[in-house]
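Much of our argument rests on the idea that a fold can be written as discrete symbols. Part of our work consisted of pairing the sequence of a single chain with a tokenised description of its backbone. We regard such an encoding as a compact summary of how the chain folds. The amino acid sequence and the backbone structure tokens for this protein are reproduced below.
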Amino acid sequence: MLGQPLQLSWEVIMEITDKFTTKALMGQCKNYVGYLGYLSEYHAFVLVKRFTGDSSSILEAEKKAAWSMRHKNILGLLGYHQSDSASVSVYPHPREGTLDNMLCPSPHNELKLKFQQKLKIAIGIAEGVRYMHQECPRGPIAHGELQLHNIFLRHDLRPMVISILKGENFSGIQSTPSGESSP
């Protein structure tokens, strides 16, 4: 699933999300609404962000970031759809869900984290953010909305920061004629 993000048709997006029926609990964001879905081709659950209004610059920023960011603690962009009527990005959805669900357990979530597990998660988040700010090959990238509901946990509790960007965070990165981005 790694590599270039997949360009998906609107029909595939509608199939993945079952016509946008299951909203993801991702906090409040004025730029998009999150949905859960299933990408049968990869046998994987996904998070689908459907942008509101004219958010094409944000989707472009996420695509450029996906082409340059490769880190064990960054949740990469799997696919996207962009047309005159809709902009959508698709991310893998790690099985354990978001960090806020793990730290604030509910009756249906019985996972209790030990101090060492919490420390491992915190270090992983710091490594991912450090990569975005200091080590990304295309230059520093500001996350834009680093919150507990934007950090996913894999089955082994490795944190995966979803690369949520705001269009202005990529103002210093421009496209070259080959389609790659450069500072």
